[in-house]
């Protein structure tokens, strides 16, 4: 993680669109209720999920490459830590991402370093709800 704790609030204030990698259709999962919470707090939220769904009224894309580039600047990831290297590779291949946020319990130091070396701000093992409640 290359973002200092003191920078998180300004980072969240700077980006008003969040692309959620793995936005679930199951309202009981954090990968659904965290995006709902953030949307209710004023952010534009869209997501990826391998199967089509319309739960929660989100714009859902089957893959990251289908999301318009201007909406991929801040990517919030809900995938297991072992999937992070391939997600970082995908993000770097597509370009345009400025912030990679790995949700609570998710980290992969080598992949994070690769993203950081490419100029991406990386936040790992942090929940958007918790951070929102700390700073707003």
Automatic annotation (TrEMBL):
Coiled coil regions, renumbered to chain: none
SUPFAM superfamilies noted in UniProt: NAD(P)-binding Rossmann-fold domains
Domain CoA-binding: 11-106
Pfam family of the protein (one): CoA_binding_2
Name this polypeptide is given: CoA-binding protein
